[in-house]
Amino acid sequence: MNSTFHTVARVHDPRPRSATPSSIGLLGIAVGLLTLWLLRDSSSLDGATRSTVACLAIIATIAAYELFVARVYLRPSAGLASGALRPLSIVRVELRLAALASVYAGIGSLYWLLPEYHGAFYNPFWSLLGTLAPYVLIAAPFYFAWMDRHQRETDDAYLLWARFLFRGEHPANWRPVREMLAGWMVKAFFLPLMIVYLSTNADHLNASLTAALNAPFSLATFRFMYDLSFAMDLMFGTVGYLCTLRILDSHVRSAEPTTLGWLVALICYQPFWSLISNQYIRYEGSVFWDNWLISMPLVRVVWGTVIVALLLCYALATISFGLRFSNLTNRGIITSGPYRFTKHPAYIAKNMSYWMVTVPFIEPLGWRAAVTHCAALLAVNTLYFLRAKTEEKHLMNDPEYREYAEWIARNGVFARLSRVFD
After folding, report:
1. What is the Cα Rg of the chain in Å?
2. What string of H, E and C letters represents the secondary structure of the chain?
3. Which among 2, 106, 196, 258 is least buried, having the fewest CB atoms inside 10 angstroms?
C-alpha cells in the first residue's frame, strides 16, 4: 500500500518544464567536440579559431532546434508574435541601433581605460571581436527591423535608452533599462574571459588527447578528461554569452539586484581571483591527489574516477543551459540534466572536486599548514555558498523558479535522502 502511494505521488508531481531540454545540450556538445576533433590537425588554425568554429557549430545546432522544433519565440516569455503586429518604423529601428552603438561605445571605452585589457592575455578575444564585428553590423539592422514588427512591447529597453540619450526623455520605468545595461555589463566582463580560457583549453585538449591515446589508462587519461570537462563547460559558457537574443528566448529577463551577489560572483574570476587567492585564500599545498596516492594504485584510480565524475557533472550542468548560460542573470529556468537532482549541481560538484584534487588536509609541512589550507578552501566553499544563496534570492522573483524550488524540496536528491533516514 505504501509503495502504491509513493508511485501515485510521483505520477502527480511532474518536474517543471525546463527552458531547454538537456538532450539538446548534449547534441550541441557532441557537434562541438566533433568540430574540434575534425580541426585538430589544421596547422593554419590556432586554438582561438578552432574553439570559435566549435562554438558556432553548437549555436547552429541548438538554435535550429529552438527555432524550428521548440519554436521558443512563441513562448510568452519571449514577448514576440508569429505575425507582424505593426508596420515597420525606420525611426524606431534607428533609435534602437543608436542605443546599441552607445552600449558598444561604453564597453569599448571601459576596455580602453582599464589596463587589465591592454595585455596580450586578451588577444584571442580581440581577434574574435574583429572577425564577428562585420557580421553583427550587417545583421543588427535586419534583426531590429524584424523585432520592431513582432515584439509585443513597443517601447523596449533599447528604445527607452535611446530616447533618454538623444532626446532627453526620462523613462516612466527605469527597470527595463537597468536590466538591459546590467546584462551587457555581465557579457562585457565574462565573454572575454570565456573566449581566452577556451582558446587556451583547445590547445591543451589536443595535447592531452595525444598523451592519453599514447598511454591509455594512465594519469594522462585523467588529464584528458579533466581538460575535456572544462572544454565543454567553457564552450557552453562562451555560447551562452554570445546568444542573448529574444528570438531564441535566451534574452536577459532580470539581472542580479544586490551588491553582494555581484561581489561574490566576480571575485571568483580574473583579475580579482588571482589577487585574492594568492594573498588570502591560497588552499593548494605542496601535495596533490596523484602524488599522495602514488603508492596505492587502486585507490588512486578510484579517487581519480570520482574526480572525473564530479567534473563531468559540473560540465553537464553548464551544458544543460543550452544557449542560456550566464552568471548574474536569469535567462530561463533550467530543470533538466543535473538540475533535476539539486538546485546547485555545478557548485556542489566543483567544490567537492577542489577537496579531492588539492587534498589540503595532506601536508608534509605539518598540521598547521594543513589547517591553514583547509580553512582557505572552506572560505572558497563559503563564497560559492553565498553565490548560491544570492542567486536563489534573485531567481525567487520568477514564479517558474519558485515552482522548481518547491519541486526540488519534495523530489531532489537531498529530500529523497532525508526520507530514507527518517
Report:
1. 23
2. CHHHHHHHHHHCCCCCCCCCCHHHHHHHHHHHHHHHHHCCCCCCCCHHHHHHHHHHHHHHHHHHHHHHHCCHHHCHHHCECCCCCCCCCHHHHHHHHHHHHHHHHHHHHHHHHCHHHCCHHHHHHHHHHHHHHHHHHHHHHHHHHHHHHHECCCCCHHHHHHHHHHHCCCCCCCHHHHHHHHHHHHHHHHHHHHHHHHHHHHHHHHHHHHHHHHCCCCHHHHHHHHHHHHHHHHHHHHHHHHCCCHHHCCCCCEECCCHHHHHHHHCCCCCHHHHHHHHCCCCCCCCCHHHHCCCCHHHHHHHHHHHHHHHHHHHHHHHCCCCCCCCCEECCCCCCHHHHCCCCHHHHHHHHHHHHHHCCCCCCCCHHHHHHHHHHHHHHHHHHHHHHHHHHHHHCCCHHHHHHHHHHHHHCHHHHHHHHHC
3. 2
pLDDT digits (tens, 9 = 90+) for 349-403: 999 999 999 999 998 888 899 999 999 999 999 999 999 999 999 999 999 999 9
Q: Which residues contact 214 (CB under 8 A, 6 or more apart)?
A: 220
Give the whole-angstrom CA distance, residue 108 versus residue 67.
32
Question: What is the C-alpha separation between 31 and 239, in angstroms, rounded?
Answer: 13
Residue 133 sits at the vertex; the CA angle it makes with 128 and 136, to the nearest 5 degrees, is: 125
Handedness of CA 189, 190, 191, 197 (dihedral sign): positive
**pLDDT tens column, 243-278:** 999 999 999 999 999 999 999 999 999 999 988 888
Which grid coordinates belong to 213?
A: 591515446
Nearest to 160 by CA among 149, 151, 171: 171
In whole angstroms, give the CA distance from residue 164 to residue 123. 35
Cβ neighbours, 10 Å, residue 52: 23
Would the pTM count as exceeding 0.70?
Answer: yes
- Cβ–Cβ < 8 Å for 16, 400: yes
How does pLDDT run across 299-349, given as a tens digit for each residue? Answer: 999 999 999 999 999 999 999 999 999 999 999 999 999 999 999 999 999
CA distance 185 to 201: 25
